[in-house]
Give the backbone structure.
Amino acid sequence: MVLAALAEEFAGLFVVPGAVMPFRSAFETGRMFQPQSDLASAAYTEAGFAFHAHLSGEFPDHIAVMLAFVSQTLAHEAAALTAGDHAAATLWQQRRVRFLLRQIGPWAIGWCRRAGGAARHPFYRAILGLTEQVIWSDICEVADQATLKRLVTANRRPLMRQKTDPDFRKASGL
């Protein structure tokens, strides 16, 4: 019973288009697969990764994909430090910081807050609250005051109403 409720909630928060879409482009513009998605893809490519959608509805600017990229930059930075390659470690750190400030920071905190508010199950409310805190903590370590102020403002913007595009939905499988 609990697993079924969690699965349903997961689909509503992270998979099925709903009130709080887990995609940066939808969060910021109300439409899917906008320039924000291309920016995420470009960051992945620059780091030597390629985004391949394995299932219909996967996009480069999905919150999970973006946070997985941050995780990979941390893993590569740690591996470079372990190997004594400080130049490579610095490069991975710079990629992570740039991605956090330019691509995660402008929307992910606001998305976590709104998705947590929409979540019915306490498990997802707690996970989304923790995710919001971890993202803020990471950003606060690397951002100056002006950047923090800009990001706070960006994350408080009103939720964009999803703009429907039947042709896109049909082509994407959503």
